Amino acid sequence: MRGHGATGQAADGHGAGGGTAGGHGPGRETSGGHGPLGAELLGREPGERASLVQFSSAFCQPCRATRRILAEVAEMVDGVEHIEIDAEKNLELVRALGIEKTPTVLVLDAAGRIVRRAAGMPRKADVIAALGAAV
C-alpha cells in the first residue's frame, strides 16, 4: 500500500497490476476463490453491464487518483458503475478476496464475476481495455 501498512504481492501473485510496472495494466483473471459479488457484498447495486470495484483506505494517496480515473470511465461507458469500498471497514470481504494493498481494482461482469483485478493506480486506457473482458 505504498507505505500505508500492507505490503507484499497482489492476490494474483504478480504484485501491482498483475506484474506490470507501476501498477499499470488490466491484471489477471482471478476470482480470489469467491463467487459472484452482488449488492449485498458491494454495499450498492452493481452496474448493468459491468462494475469497477475499488478497494481504498483513508490515507492512500493513489486511491484518490484511482477514484477519479474509475469515475471518469464509468461515466463514459453506459451500464458501468464505479463502486468504492473502504478496505478498513470491510475486512472480512478484503480477506475473502485476497486484497493485500490499496488501491485494488476489480472489474466485474454483469453477473458479478471478477474478470480482471489489479493492485496499484491504473491508467485510464488500461481500465477501458479491462472493461472489454467484462462487457
Question: What's the helix and strand layout?
Answer:
Elements: H1 39-42, E1 50-56, H2 61-76, E2 80-86, H3 91-97, E3 104-109, E4 114-119, H4 124-131
Parallel strand pairs: 1-2
Antiparallel strand pairs: 1-3, 3-4
User: How many E-type strands?
Assistant: 4
The strand line-up of the biggest sheet is 2-1-3-4
Strand content: 15-25%
Can you give the helix content as a percent range?
A: 25-40%
Q: What can be said about this structure in brief?
A:
The protein is α+β, with helices and mostly antiparallel strands. It has four helices and four strands.
Structural description of this entry:
With 135 residues, this protein is of the alpha+beta class. It is built from four helices and four strands; from the N terminus they run αβαβαββα. It has a four-stranded mixed sheet, with helices on one face. Helix 2 links the parallel strand 1 and strand 2 (80-86). It is globular. The termini are far apart. The relative contact order is 0.27. Residues 1-31 have low confidence and may be disordered.
